[in-house]
Each structure stands twice: as structure tokens, then as C-alpha cells.
């Protein structure tokens, strides 16, 4: 099939590349010429394991093209996937200007295209315009109207939410748990099924449903996952207050199959481009439709508070924010999660900012997220390629991302480098008993701190 992806962000680029990888003719369109030039030179603008190689292979094979030429990209395509950004304001209201601008350009291209000559019957019937960006329920219809305002020629609409996770995007796309497609007519449902069938040879389902339901699935799924994280973080906070150990509580509760054991790890709360935005968007849809969503508002508030609670733990240990002035704090992990250089809504950045504002020096290491952090924080913190290089004379180490390479460090080396062997672990990477035996003062989430009193006396 001839497919055009509009927007070469995370979803557009991964989806387009994976479609081309199974033999489709894919054109990725972006308004940013620098991005397109990079892609044409085989360089991915985002960090995603395996993506560079896949782009290079399919680009060289002549199946994957990158362009800024809208007319050509829209005119040739049988299917056009809208994957542009939908930035949200603080209230979670999604800004649809990029989606609607693409729709209107697509409408013009359909109107001005020469009459269909030959080709598959279904191709001559009209293009399918697929909305893949996560957009408020009802947007598909707005896109249809924006296209219809430019042309009377036939075209078809579909909604196709994407569930891939950053850091595991290619595998998630190639072997999805499910594919969800919303359509207004059976023919379009059939054409979408045909496109996705090679990806569900694992027997996983393709659900074809009405458009408003498909649009809601993505929000419901992400809001559920976000709820699980805020839930366990709230329980972890109660554990700290009552001297319970959240690891034990986790084991005890998750052995109930109805609860399950996935996505219930306490920590600094969720970040990234999806959960914070999508949870807020649900709240915003609730306000607009006068349908109260107090649960999801609380999920968001708990998440915002969780990183601040962790910062407060550091402040409390040092006896007040004023005492952070002049302290040297090492930070391991900047990305919102391992496997990505994405720092959008990353707890590490909030905590680093607060430490710097309080007058501390922050020396950070992340395996891949220095450049992306520098765009946001500039040189207000130090960046080190080696994780131990952050530790020289440090008054404490703060761990913000659960990168695997942090899980079994050389504790002896850490102790000898640090000014004080104090660790604030926002991701519960270590067994508290082990850190106690290694002579560290250790704070984590939902578990009693170790050696805290001794360290306080020594201060
Ligand atoms: C998420 C969804 O998983 C994906 O289906 C959707 O398409 C986009 O949003 P992603 O943002 O890539 O994907 O990250 P994910 O791996 O889901 O993690 C989100 C955040 O939750 C991270 O900050 C992670 O640290 C945090 N998290 C996850 C927890 O704090 N505890 C957990 O138990 C799981």
C-alpha cells in the first residue's frame, strides 16, 4: 500500500518505518526541513533502540521516503496517517491546530488531484484519512469536516490509537497486544484490517469499532495505567508513615490475580509524553461535557505531588532548604524512564531544578539523555559520561531513573568517592538491608530509611 505519515515524531516515525519494513511504500512528511534532511541522511531525530538501523535499511531499499512536499505526499497516498503533535495547555486542553491544518491541506490535495486512473478498485474509491495522534473524543469528526470543507470528492475516515511504549516502540508496534480501529463504514474497516494483519500473526486481535469508542480506548487505557501508578504511590506513602514495607505489601496484594502485578511499582510518579497529558485531557473532557472526573483529577494531583514529596525528603534530611545551599548532589538518571532520552515531564528535571534553586550543585549522569536535558536545563547542572564521575565529594546521590546499569554498582567505589555515603533512591533499585550492610544511609519509596539517624547525628 502507499502510505503517508504526517509528522515524524515518535509515533509517526516508528509507525511509518514499521509499515515500510513489511513492504509498504511509505512517505514521511514533516514541516521541519532540518528533520527531513537528517532522516534522508539516515539519522533518526529521536533515540529509540533499533530505529536507526530500520530507517536506514528501508530508506536504502527505496520503500521509506522523507519529504517536506505536502502536495506530492498527499496526492500519491492511499492512506494518510495524521501523527502530528497535540500540545496541551495546563488544563489538559489539547491544541488541535496542527491536526486541523493537516486536514485542510489533505482536503485541498484531494480536491486538486487528477482523476483516478486505473489502480486497485478500493484505491479509486477514495483515500483513508487515519487519525493516529491522541486526540479528544470527537476530533475525528472535526477532521472529517475540515477535509470536507475543501472537497466534495470521496474520502474515508478512521481512528487508530497507538499503544507503543518508548524504548520498546519497534517491538510493541510489530507485536501489538491489540490493534484498535474506529471506522464509519465496513469497507474502511476491511482495508485497515488488511494493513494490520501482518502484525497480528501472533494471534492478537484487531478490534474494529465505532469512531468515538476507538478514540476513547487510548484515554481509558492510559488513565487506567496512570491510576495504578498513583494508587501504589499513595499506598507507598502510607507504608512510610506506618513502618510497612511496600515490597512486602506489593507481594501480598499482587498475588491476587484480580489485581495483577504489572504497573504497580512505586517511585517518583509517571512522566513522559502520554500519561500526564492524557490524564489531564480526560479531566478536561469531563469539564467540557460537565461529567465530573474527580478520580482522574486525583490521579494527576497525586502524581505531581509524588516528586515533590521526594524532594521534601531530601530537604528534611538536610534540616531545611537553606541547608542545601552549597551542597553537592549527584544525580543518576534524567530520562522519564529507562530506554529513552525523553525528558518530557521527567521527575528528575523537577527535582534537579528545585535543588539548583535551593543553591545546590547538581552533577548528573544519564546514559542517553544529556542533550535533551540540556535543551531544558541548560548548564544549570553538570553532565558526566561516567556515573562514578558524578560522585566526587558528593553530599548525597539522588536516583531518578531505573536504568539497568544503575542496579549493581560498585558500592565500595561509591563510598570512597562520595563526601557522605547518602543515597535517595526514587526508584527502589536496591535492597535496603544491602545498603545498610554497605554502610550507606539509604532513603527509598515506601520503605523505612536505613542508617538515617546515625547520619543525622554525624551531620
Ligand atoms: C505509555 C503507555 O504505556 C503506552 O501504551 C502509550 O502508548 C504511551 O504511554 P510510555 O510513556 O512510553 O508509554 O511509558 P511507560 O513505559 O508506560 O511508563 C510511563 C511512566 O510510568 C514512566 O515514568 C515510568 O517510570 C512510570 N511507571 C511505570 C511507574 O512509576 N511505575 C510502574 O509500575 C510503571
TrEMBL record:
Domain (UDP-glucose/GDP-mannose dehydrogenase C-terminal): residue spans on this chain: 330-432
EC nos: 1.1.1.22
SUPFAM superfamilies for the chain: 6-phosphogluconate dehydrogenase C-terminal domain-like (SSF48179), NAD(P)-binding Rossmann-fold domains (SSF51735), UDP-glucose/GDP-mannose dehydrogenase C-terminal domain (SSF52413)
A Gene Ontology biological process term: UDP-glucuronate biosynthetic process
NCBIfam families reported in the protein's UniProt record: NDP-sugDHase (TIGR03026)
Similarity comment: Belongs to the UDP-glucose/GDP-mannose dehydrogenase family.
Protein name: UDP-glucose 6-dehydrogenase
Amino acid at each position: 500500500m502507499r502510505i503517508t505519515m504526517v509528522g515524524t515524531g515518535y509515533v509517526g516515525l516508528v509507525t511509518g518505518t514499521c509499515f515500510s519494513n513489511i513492504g509498504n511504500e511509505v512517505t514521511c512528511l514533516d514541516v521541519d526541513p532540518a528533520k527531513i534532511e537528517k532522516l534522508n541522511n539516515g539519522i533518526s531525530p529521536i533515540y529509540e533502540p533499533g530505529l536507526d538501523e530500520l530507517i536506514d535499511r528501508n530508506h536504502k531499499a527505496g520503500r521509506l521516503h522523507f519529504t517536506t512536499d505536502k502536495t506530492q505526499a498527499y496526492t500519491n497516498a492511499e492512506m494518510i496517517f495524521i501523527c502530528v503533535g497535540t500540545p496541551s495547555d495546563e488544563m489538559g486542553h489539547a491544541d488541535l491546530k496542527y491536526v486541523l491544518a493537516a486536514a485542510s491541506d489533505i482536503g485541498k490535495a484531494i480536491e486538486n488531484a487528477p482523476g483516478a486512473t486505473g489502480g486497485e478498485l478500493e484505491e479509486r474509491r477514495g483515500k483513508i484519512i487515519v487519525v493516529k495522534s491522541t486526540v479528544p473524543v470527537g476530533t475525528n469528526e472535526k477532521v472529517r469536516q475540515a477535509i470536507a470543507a475543501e472537497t466534495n470528492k470521496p474520502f474515508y475516515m478512521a481512528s487508530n490509537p497507538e499503544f507503543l511504549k518508548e524504548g520498546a516502540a519497534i517491538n510493541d508496534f510489530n507485536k501489538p497486544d491489540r490493534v484498535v480501529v474506529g471506522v464509519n463504514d465496513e469497507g474502511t474497516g476491511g482495508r485497515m484490517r488488511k494493513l494490520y494483519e501482518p502484525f497480528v500473526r501472533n494471534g492478537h486481535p484487531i478490534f474494529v469499532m465505532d469512531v468515538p469508542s476507538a478514540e476513547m480506548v487510548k484515554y481509558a487505557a492510559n488513565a487506567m495505567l496512570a491510576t495504578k501508578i498513583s494508587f501504589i504511590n499513595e499506598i507507598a506513602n502510607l507504608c512510610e508513615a506506618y513502618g510497612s514495607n511496600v515490597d512486602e505489601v506489593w507481594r501480598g496484594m499482587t498475588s491476587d490475580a484480580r489485581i495483577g502485578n504489572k504497573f504497580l511499582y512505586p517511585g517518583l510518579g509517571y512522566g513522559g509524553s502520554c500519561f500526564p497529558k492524557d490524564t489531564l485531557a480526560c479531566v478536561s473532557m469531563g469539564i467540557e461535557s460537565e461529567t465530573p472526573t474527580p478520580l482522574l483529577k486525583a490521579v494527576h494531583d497525586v502524581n505531581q505531588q509524588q516528586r515533590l514529596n521526594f524532594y521534601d525528603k531530601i530537604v528534611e534530611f538536610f534540616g531545611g532548604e537553606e541547608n542545601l545551599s552549597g551542597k553537592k548532589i549527584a544525580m543518576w538518571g534524567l530520562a522519564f524512564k529507562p530506554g529513552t532520552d525523553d525528558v518530557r515531564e521527567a521527575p528528575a528535571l523537577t527535582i534537579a531544578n528545585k535543588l539548583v534553586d535551593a543553591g545546590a550543585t547538581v552533577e548528573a549522569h544519564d546514559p542517553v539523555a544529556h542533550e535533551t536535558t540540556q535543551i531544558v536545563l541548560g548548564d544549570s547542572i553538570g553532565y558526566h559520561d561516567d556515573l562514578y564521575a558524578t560522585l566526587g565529594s558528593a553530599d548525597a546521590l539522588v536516583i531518578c531513573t531505573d536504568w539497568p546499569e544503575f542496579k549493581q554498582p560498585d558500592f565500595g567505589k561509591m563510598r570512597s568517592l562520595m563526601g557522605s555515603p547518602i543515597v535517595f533512591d526514587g526508584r527502589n533499585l536496591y535492597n535496603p538491608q544491602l545498603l545498610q550492610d554497605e554502610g550507606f544511609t539509604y532513603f527509598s519509596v515506601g520503605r523505612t530509611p536505613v542508617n538515617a539517624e546515625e547520619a543525622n547525628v554525624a551531620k
